[in-house]
Amino acid sequence: MADPLQFMREGLAALEAMGLDLDCPVVSSATDAHMVVNGKRVLNLASNNYLGLANHPELKDAAKRAIDRWGAGAGAVRYVAGTQDLHLELERRLAQFKGTEAAMFAQTGVVANLSALVALAGSEDVIFSDRLNHASIIDGAQLSRARVVVYEHCDVLDLQARIREHLPGHRRGLIVTDGVFSMDGDIAPLDQLHQVAVDHGLLLMVDDAHGDGVLGHGRGIAHHFGLQGRIDVEVGTLSKAFGVIGGVIAGKRLVVDYIRAGGRASQYSTGTTPADTAACLAALDLLERSTALVDRLWDNTRYFRNGMRALGFQLGNTETPILPVLLGEADLAKRLARRLFEEGVFAVAQAFPLVPRGQARIRLIVSAVHERRDLDFALSVFAAVGRELGVIGAGS
Ligand SMILES: Cc1ncc(COP(=O)(O)O)c(C=O)c1O
To answer: 23-55+291-388 in CATH: which number?
Structure first.
């Protein structure tokens, strides 16, 4: 009798043989500038905790107070009995913060992308998607059953050519792009994409997961380009700079209502816990009160990026706190990450399928809670280990 589990053994063994098995580091402290990873205290350059809010006292207090008042869980999906007044307050505040008519709070950024794409497109439609978009956009586009046309990364001319070729014969079209690309740190040309969408009568959706709390003085990519309130669909996440968890879909009230009604992933999943929702509100309070953390994030980014480039590391076209140290082969990226860890710096190697084959890298993320001495320490470790492995020249 054939073993029905055999294909799983073979599949996992094949991934392991290619070095693609998931080997998750285990964190046993709060997420912060320093943390305990696999039992060792290290400098953390791997989290998306841009502003250091994941362990911020105001967020933790808000979460504790919310548990006392609203309990541990929402108890039902949003449209049955799981919409708490806290959720509505957060949605109102998120819309205000982003300068849009309305906002919807989803369970995660992934759920927000799946919900928006499934609601907005169907089998008669075409989605134009940047080649380097996040996995949840790729999955959401497939789930929508629309025709998916991939255009070259941030290439507006290629996008226009593909629209001219593929839009005819479809009911509607949608352009979708990451705002900040998570593996490269470059920024989508949202002003040009907006113009293309207007010229061709298409919807425009941007996933601002890495721009929320970072770009536009913290208010996101639409503010960065002076387009607040003018992008059809602004998806975001509260799990990165906001330091908690949750997704957001912001835009005109009509658009948000339509996605709320048709976004199955979000509809059929239980509402976010009171603790998380209240912590997100506390993060918004902080960001509205002052841009000090955002300013510090950018100071640290400039300092560390200049230091790494001066040492001779290749960082590609990054324009944000995401700094990809480009290495090429997965094996080299993994060896470098291992040596950095041994020297007290936690940074993760990213290889295929997260990035194209042959473009392995170590992705560094600077945060507002790194001290100058942390960044200087990281630079000295990178200098020593980079020379040892021949990534930078001996004279660097
Ligand atoms: C571009 C992008 N979109 C969406 C997500 C998913 O966000 P969340 O963790 O809130 O599901 C991520 C997170 O890795 C991301 O990088």
So the answer is: 3.90.1150.10
